[in-house]
Design brief:
Helix content: 10-25%
Number of strands: 20
Strand content: 25-35%
Largest sheet: 6 strands, antiparallel
Radius of gyration: 20 Å
Shape: globular
């Protein structure tokens, strides 16, 4: 019995390895196809899903410091069918002392039927590199369907309660009573935007990079997801503030920055609008109904 079982395991191992390789190859090829059908150009704000409004902005032409494109989704959280999403922890990764398996943002959007998706928070680079399905730990606190990843004492938390009301914490670490109420949430290191004003220390920074930012207007029940090609964090925050955002945080940036519109988007062209070539640990998105 033992030798037979060992034989079956030995025979199964190459098949498992081959399956993993094929899955990775398929994922990479699908990502390249999605990348190729993307179109990058300025686009006026348009309702692309019910309650979801997309715009593409030429940063320099619009008078902001930086260059390249900003891709912005403004979400009406009161619209029928709109649901927030944050990547859940992965059982396979948890068994190995990690939290997530790296996925492309477009891949997560397909799997969870997301209308719009961006990359999430910072994560610890896996030792084997940024390969799909490799495991990693998130750096900042995240909440997915009421389950808290961990508490990072340095994290601010942008979170949503049972009624999908958006909040951004005012103190660190995040209080236990907040975590008890949070259904979805994503963390960041700095509150770049507070009460409609850009943080003073952020304004003094001149470093430009790709950034992803999320922001809210609690009173108006609005949520923004935005990715920027080459700006300062202050410019990213100001662009969203000028569109009505009151509070916000920058998430991961650089090679992780991704903005994806689902294939049922109308009338804007769907696909990867920015980035998307690196799999990441967490993603933020919304589900929404097609525009009638």
């Amino acid at each position: 019995m033992c030798s037979s079982s060992a034989g079956r395991d030995a025979a199964r191992s190459p098949l498992v390895a081959r399956g993993v390789v094929l899955a990775v190859v398929f994922t990479v090829l699908a990502g390249l196809i999605t990348w190729r059908i993307s179109i990058t150009a300025p686009y006026p704000e348009t309702e692309v899903f019910a309650g979801v409004y997309y715009t593409a902005l030429d940063v320099e032409a619009a008078g902001y410091p930086g260059r390249g494109m900003a891709h912005i989704a403004r979400v009406d959280l009161t619209a029928p069918g709109v649901e927030v999403f944050v990547t859940p922890m992965d059982a396979h990764a948890l068994r190995r002392g990690q939290q997530y398996r790296l996925r492309y943002t477009w891949q997560m959007a397909w799997q969870h039927d997301l209308a719009v998706a961006v990359n999430g928070t910072l994560f610890e680079p896996p030792p084997i590199g940024y390969w799909p399905y490799s495991t990693a730990r998130g750096h900042h606190t995240a909440v997915s369907n009421g389950i808290v990843s961990h508490v990072n004492p340095s994290s601010w938390l942008l979170w949503f309660d049972d009624d999908q009301v958006p909040h951004l914490t005012d103190e660190r670490p995040v209080r236990p009573e907040v975590l008890d109420r949070a259904v979805w949430g994503i963390g960041g290191l700095v509150r770049e935007l507070r009460d409609g004003a850009v943080h003073g220390r952020v304004q003094r920074s001149t470093e430009t990079n790709r950034y992803t930012m999320v922001a809210i207007n609690q009173e108006e029940m609005l949520f923004w997801m935005a990715s920027f090609e080459d700006v300062t964090r202050a410019a990213a925050a100001q662009i969203l503030a000028d569109r009505g955002a009151r509070d916000g945080i920058v998430l991961d940036g650089g090679g992780s920055t991704t903005f994806y519109l689902a294939r049922h988007t109308q009338p804007a062209p769907w696909g990867l609008r920015l980035g998307g070539m690196r799999p990441v640990a967490t993603h933020v998105g919304v589900r929404a109904q097609p525009v009638e």
